Amino acid sequence: MTYDEQLLWKQEKQRKILLKMMKRLDPADTFPSDLSFPLLPIVASPVRDGYRNKSFFSVNRGVDGNQKTVGFLVGTERQKNLICVNGGHLLNMPSTHNVVARCYEDFIRASPLSSCILFIDGGHWRELVIRTNQSGHTMAIVYFHPQSLTPDEIGIHKTALVEYFTQGPGSICQLDSLYFQETPMTRCSHKQSPYQLLHGQPHIYEEVLGFKFRISPDSFFQVNQGAAEALYRAIAELNRDSVGGTLLDVCCGTGAVSISLSRQMDRVIGIELIEQAVEDAKYNAALNGVHNCEFIAGKAEVVLPNLMSGLHSHDALTAIVNPSRAGLHYRVVRALRNHRGIKRLIYVSCKPDGEAMRNFYELCCRSALIKGVTGKAFRPTVAVPVDLFPHTSDCELVIVFER
Ligand SMILES: C[S@@+](CC[C@H](N)C(=O)[O-])C[C@H]1O[C@@H](n2cnc3c(N)ncnc32)[C@H](O)[C@@H]1O
């Protein structure tokens, strides 16, 4: 598809998702033919090719059967047709990411250690994550299953990895940071297994709407910097009637929404699960001379109910929620709905037809239908899609709920 065709296709996809939401909210309306609120035109990404600032490469069996292939998975384990393809043809990935992946593949193919494909089969070399920024800085993170190796034995392979990327053939990648994480599970946080800086700078920095952001290896940052600016501008525009009150930024990552909206608000409170991201968010507020933002580490479902009880119902409160694909925990929705001060809630989702749909229902259904929910129901008032992911079927959808 041309990019214009992609945008038309995505706009229609979001319209269908919102119709599905309306049907869920009012089952009596079996076939709603039109939305009861405006869906604004999709905001295009200013950059269409090579926009990703983060790529996640798997290690698995390639088309030729080589178990040390670094790339993207195609097929499924269940259908026994899973293979790893190198992905150099993908339009959304910058070529620099593929260069690092090819080097990592050469390195692990020359290594005496095997790749770790299924944990029960053993093996060590696992995924590779590459992060880059607008200034061309590159961070690589290598994931490694320690199995029963001793720290000294692992140390030999870490040294070989550093030598390869700093003095050997991998030096063409000009890595600014090389991290290593020992991961005996699918995914470990920094707290569970520290990210070990083997070479270079501990952080990568990105600039959004004139604000500078420090990003640690474990922290979330939107994958498309230019389109993230468009997203935050769209959110600020939708939030313009809430100027001056308190903003709750639920699932705040490194504080990008909080900080970019800080000038509109008296006070901003961000809540985020990943501790490294919260440290980044606090640092980023200070770095940008922003003094009205505070950030709390923890699960939103644990932090928010206590926090809400300390906020007065006559306070002007707005919530912006941007959870991962798992959506918001029911306790988060209940705490937001039951607080009378919240008149407007902005929901940002990259998968609105997934778990987020459950949240839309929890926000908008009659209070009698959900245990513990006493607050007045919200209703959607406007939605705007923002294309953060050209050449894929996804985009972000921002929905404003009011009551
Ligand atoms: C899509 S990101 C949003 C980040 C932010 N709004 C931005 O634009 O940079 C979702 C964030 O939710 C966090 N998260 C996931 N589950 C959470 C939970 N239960 N409580 C708090 N934060 C959570 C993730 O760590 C991630 O940083």
From TrEMBL:
A Pfam family this chain is assigned to: tRNA_U5-meth_tr
InterPro entries found in the cross-reference section: SAM-dependent_MTases_sf, TRM2_met, TRM2B_chor, U5_MeTrfase_fam
Residues the record lists as binding S-adenosyl-L-methionine: Q222, E272, N322
CDD domains: AdoMet_MTases
UniProt keyword Signal, yes or no: no
Entry keyword annotation includes Transferase: yes
Keyword terms, alphabetized: Methyltransferase, S-adenosyl-L-methionine, Transferase
Family in the record: Belongs to the class I-like SAM-binding methyltransferase superfamily. RNA M5U methyltransferase family.
Entries under PANTHER family matching the protein: TRNA (URACIL-5-)-METHYLTRANSFERASE, TRNA (URACIL-5-)-METHYLTRANSFERASE HOMOLOG B
Name of the protein in its database record: tRNA (uracil(54)-C(5))-methyltransferase
Natural source organism: Danionella cerebrum
